[in-house]
Amino acid sequence: MSSTAHPVRPIGTGSIGTDPVRIGVVTVSDRASQGVYEDKGGPAIIATLTRLIVSPWVAESRVIPDDRDGIAATLAGLADETGCGLIVTTGGTGPAPRDVTPEATEQVCDKMMPGFGELMRKVSLQVVPTAILSRQTAGIRGSCLIVNLPGKPSAIDDCLMAVFPAIPYCLDLIGAGRIDTDPAVCRSFRPGS
Ligand SMILES: Nc1ncnc2c1ncn2[C@@H]1O[C@H](COP(=O)(O)OP(=O)(O)OP(=O)(O)O)[C@@H](O)[C@H]1O
Ligand SMILES: Nc1nc2c(c(=O)[nH]1)N[C@H]1C(S)=C(S)[C@@H](COP(=O)(O)O)O[C@H]1N2
């Protein structure tokens, strides 16, 4: 895990009013990044976020190969320079030699949030027995929450819907900006409100 301090926005100052929250959408795939197949992961993340979020947000999309340093640099750049409050990755979470997204995530984060991976695997196990093969995790870099999803486009909705109720409050706590969800789609939980 990274030991240096990363930009933290004072709580309550991130993306207030009309400022949209920036959300990084990162597809990690050798073949999608080479154009061997069309990326379906990034658009699937955007489709789920569009159903979930009713407050202003903008997507910052990237399609990159399974290279640890490249993934780490992309995540750090989206968090520190682009000012993303949330980054969602897809791909590279499995056991194959080139699957290194969790390692790159841990490399750039100040603290890990293991509950996200635990819940996503639990929910995914209802769908596929191979859910245990995903090492997907989540962590905080400065004022940005990074969440890994598996590469299968069909996994994206299952996993994001499971953890999203906790994401707006997590973003509040790290000064990442306010996200409001459509209560008919997802009841986000803010203790005390
Ligand atoms: N971004 C994507 N867009 C469309 N289909 C995908 C994407 N990522 C994965 N898939 C599909 O899901 C399958 C399993 O995904 P996985 O991430 O294990 O791929 P992979 O074998 O690591 O290869 P690559 O990194 O080249 O995508 C792939 O073989 C492909 O059919
Ligand atoms: N919900 C869900 N989770 C899933 C899957 C899936 O199809 N749906 N595929 C599994 C499989 S087969 C693998 S190998 C791991 C890792 O996938 P990745 O390397 O593409 O990230 O995610 C697992 N988690």
What report would you give on this structure?
With 193 residues, the protein is an alpha/beta fold. It has one domain: Molybdenum Cofactor Biosythetic Enzyme, Chain A (3-Layer(aba) Sandwich), CATH 3.40.980.10. Helices cover 36% and strands 17% of the residues. It contains 7 helices and 6 strands. It has helices spanning 30-34, 41-52, 68-80, 101-108, 114-125, 153-163, 167-174, and strands at 21-28, 57-64, 86-90, 111-112, 138-141, 144-149. Strands 2-1-3-6-5-4 form a 6-stranded mixed sheet, with helices on both faces. A hairpin with a 2-residue loop joins β5 (138-141) and β6 (144-149). The protein is globular and about 45 Å long. The structure holds adenosine-5'-triphosphate and ligand MTE. Ligand MTE binds at residues 91-94, 99, 124, 127-128, 130-131, 133-134, 150-152, 154-155, 158-159. It catalyses: molybdopterin + ATP + H(+) = adenylyl-molybdopterin + diphosphate. Residues 24-170 form the MoaB/Mog domain. Belongs to the MoaB/Mog family.
